[in-house]
Design goal:
Layout: E1 2-9, H1 18-32, E2 48-50, E3 59-68, H2 75-85, E4 90-97, H3 106-109, E5 112-120, H4 127-131, H5 133-140, E6 146-150, E7 155-159, E8 164-170, E9 173-179, H6 188-199, E10 207-218, E11 256-258, E12 264-265, H7 269-272
Parallel strand pairs: 3-10
Antiparallel strand pairs: 1-3, 1-4, 2-3, 4-12, 5-9, 5-10, 6-7, 8-9, 10-11
Helix pairs in contact: 1-2
């Protein structure tokens, strides 16, 4: 049985990296006595995979990892057990059964994520909302937004406009819905850096906070693009966005479903009987 676990990461634990998060949940599994399955061989390890590791310094309400169970356990009991032994800054939100196919793992299907980026100035807490509402529309209205994206081996110019599914001003900053995943992935820091440069914002005087809200998969099948061969325009949900509209309410936004909603709660044996 495959299970998807959703959790929150907040407080001081936002400063720990992905490997530490993984080790943390390995300990939580043991202490909570979750019947997780192990690989076979000389060095067995827990069968566990994370959808999209969170960067250091970011908090989140929507992190996911998938596991396999050796035997069934109810969702309610599993969540209760895990939260009882989890450290402050980690909270399990849900524990849901998912499809058995390998192609349905969170790592394979994640397609988008949304963020709330806080932008704060001590002398004027409402500075962003009051000054840059129109700048967002103009920023998104550009035919392209070329930026220099640094990879492990080199730097290359990339048009990030098709990867921005939604961008809206909020009282404390900006809401973003961006492409995510192993093939097409856009970090909020890159978008905000490009926006500040476009709008003439002096980012040195602003304190930023980065919070991931949720992760999504496509509701309907799309041709999976690759960096060298993007999908045809008629199959890409980001192709029909009206410039300056602030997002893809008729495209990507409505074709997305949370990773949590793709699973079902596991009932206790007593309730099932």
């Amino acid at each position: 049985m495959k299970v998807r676990i959703k959790f929150r990461k907040y407080g001081a634990l936002r400063f720990i990296g992905h490997l530490d998060v993984m080790r943390c949940f390995q300990k939580v599994m043991r202490r909570a006595q979750i019947p997780i399955a192990f690989t076979s061989g000389y060095s067995p390890h827990m069968i566990m995979s994370f959808a999209s590791p969170l960067g250091i310094g970011l908090t989140s309400d929507g992190e996911y990892f998938d596991i396999e169970l050796a035997e069934s356990i109810s969702s309610k009991e599993a969540v209760c057990r895990m939260n009882a032994v989890s450290p402050e800054g980690m909270e399990v939100v849900s524990f849901r059964q998912i499809a058995e196919e390998k192609k349905m793992t969170g790592m394979a299907i994640v397609a988008a994520a949304d963020y709330l980026v806080g932008m704060h100035r001590k002398e004027d807490p409402k500075y962003f909302r009051n000054s840059f509402h129109d700048s967002i529309a103009a920023f998104l209205g550009q035919p392209g937004i070329p930026v220099i994206k640094q990879t492990k081996r080199s730097e290359q110019e990339v048009d990030i406009r098709p990867l921005i599914y939604q961008m809206e001003p909020k009282e404390e900053g900006v809401y973003l819905k961006l492409a995510a995943g192993s093939v097409r992935n856009l970090k909020p820091e890159l978008v905000i850096s490009a926006f500040c440069e476009f709008a003439g914002i002096d980012s040195e005087g602003i304190r930023f906070t980065w919070h991931r809200l949720e992760m999504y998969a496509w509701k309907t099948p799309f041709i999976k693009p690759s960096p060298d061969c993007p999908a045809p325009e008629d199959r890409m949900p980001c192709s029909n966005v009206e410039p300056g509209s602030g997002g893809e309410k008729d495209g990507a936004a409505e074709n997305l479903i949370t990773l949590e909603d793709l699973g079902e709660d596991i009932e206790s044996r007593e309730n099932h009987d």
